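Q: Please design a sequence for this.
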């Protein structure tokens, strides 16, 4: 238990996994009068060169514990599917006047499998999953983020809206899909978290001049992993495994009801000057890409605070977190926001060096 506070100090991978487990209507209301509220979901990317053990990190912190929950839902789905096949066969054999008594709830409905994460999907496939489970957020766990961006509108000949749909899912916007055959999906709100890895040079190529006109990159919390050599420990497989402990926390968040959180008075007073400073930077910074980052970080502080609060409350033994986020948690969220802004500045500095806008040795000083 003594380790718990250190686990939640800001690991973006753990935070993004936790963010995808809330109910879709869960939010932090920052300012009721201005209608300023944020959902819990997070987009995160780990930036490092090939061979830096990025995939094992995602596996240990996210995929391994969430796979347990996903396997449980898969087994439950298989059982529900078997019951459905028996019930629908009985329905077909029944005479119409017998159905109302034997099936008071109507015709048996085809069960839909609940997913906690996916590694590959089309835009419409994501929408259908949300329609089957509208109260659940979803996680895109992408080993290589470039694949997610490259596949956008792949199955629609470049004429689809998958890029825009993913950006809208960041804010919990609804979606209605119309096709010639009629309405394919109609969802009031959907929430998507994203976690993946990408190489620095690939990210530079995708970001181009870092102007970020639609704010896609500003939605991501990037962490630049420095080059470091791995070593084999002496325990030969007897080290501490976080998966079991993480599974307990993930399961607890998944079982929480829809919650509306708010900042304590002290936390809100601390947030006000930070918000005002970010607003000034949003309108004054010369780089449009950084302006987008400062704009998104206003709400990201709330998203980080919400997830940190829930994790700390669960670590303290509470089954239902309090709905008020204290100053201590907001301070951690602000510190994390500053860290992530610094990570983006490093990416922009490296892009500027490649474009000839910054001398290479100056970029190295920034790094």
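A: Design:
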């Amino acid at each position: 238990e003594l380790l718990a506070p250190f686990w939640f100090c800001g690991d973006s991978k753990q935070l993004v996994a936790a963010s995808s487990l809330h109910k879709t209507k869960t939010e932090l209301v920052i300012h009721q009068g201005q209608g300023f509220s944020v959902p819990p979901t997070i987009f995160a990317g780990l930036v490092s060169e090939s061979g830096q053990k990025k995939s094992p990190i995602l596996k240990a912190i996210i995929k391994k514990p969430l796979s347990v929950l996903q396997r449980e839902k898969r087994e439950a789905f298989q059982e529900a599917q078997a019951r459905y096949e028996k019930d629908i066969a009985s329905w077909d054999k029944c005479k119409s006047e017998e159905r109302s008594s034997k099936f008071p709830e109507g015709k048996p409905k085809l069960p839909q499998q609940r997913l906690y994460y996916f590694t590959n999907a089309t835009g419409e496939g994501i929408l259908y999953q949300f329609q089957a489970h509208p109260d659940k957020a979803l996680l895109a766990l992408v080993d290589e983020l470039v694949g997610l961006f490259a596949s956008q509108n792949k199955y629609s000949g470049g004429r689809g809206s998958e890029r825009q749909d993913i950006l809208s899912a960041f804010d919990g916007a609804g979606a209605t899909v119309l096709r010639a055959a009629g309405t394919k999906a109609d969802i009031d709100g959907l929430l998507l978290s994203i976690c993946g890895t990408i190489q620095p040079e690939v990210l530079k190529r995708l970001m181009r001049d870092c102007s970020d006109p639609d704010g896609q990159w500003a939605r991501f919390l990037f962490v630049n992993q420095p080059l470091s050599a791995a070593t084999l420990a002496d325990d030969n497989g007897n080290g501490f495994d976080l998966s079991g402990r993480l599974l307990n926390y993930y399961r607890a968040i998944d079982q929480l009801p829809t919650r509306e959180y708010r900042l304590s008075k002290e936390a809100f007073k601390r947030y006000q000057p930070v918000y005002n400073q970010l607003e000034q930077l949003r309108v004054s910074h010369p780089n449009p890409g950084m302006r987008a980052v400062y704009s998104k970080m206003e709400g990201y502080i709330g998203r980080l605070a919400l997830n940190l609060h829930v994790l700390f409350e669960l670590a303290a033994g509470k089954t239902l977190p309090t709905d008020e986020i204290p100053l201590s948690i907001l301070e951690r969220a602000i510190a994390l926001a500053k860290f992530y802004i610094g990570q983006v500045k490093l990416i922009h500095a490296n892009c500027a060096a490649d474009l000839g806008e910054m001398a290479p040795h100056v970029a190295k000083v920034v790094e």
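Q: Thanks. Anything notable?
A: The chain has a mean pLDDT of 85. DSSP finds 13 helices and eleven strands in the chain.
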